[in-house]
Please model this.
Amino acid sequence: MNTSWDLIDITFGDYFNLGYDTAAVLEKNKSGEYRVGIYNFVGFGFENMKTSNTFNNVESINTVNESNKNYIELNFFGLKSNIKLNYN
Model:
């Protein structure tokens, strides 16, 4: 199992209704799997708060605000529909 993950894309939002933004980082490993890690800025570094399941063929991520709630949207290569991740 490969444990090395590279940063592909990043977006920011208040995904847990904490009153402040966290970083949602799209990461990819050498096997071609993608995951989203949620990181909180602590002192001089970042602390992992949550890591998603793995996905395939993810092109990018962005933050969507609907009804004053932030969601992470995964955008896939070649697909018209995307997935919204909700941690609220």
Notes: The radius of gyration is 13 Å. The mean pLDDT is 88. The CA atoms of residues 16 and 88 lie 5 Å apart.
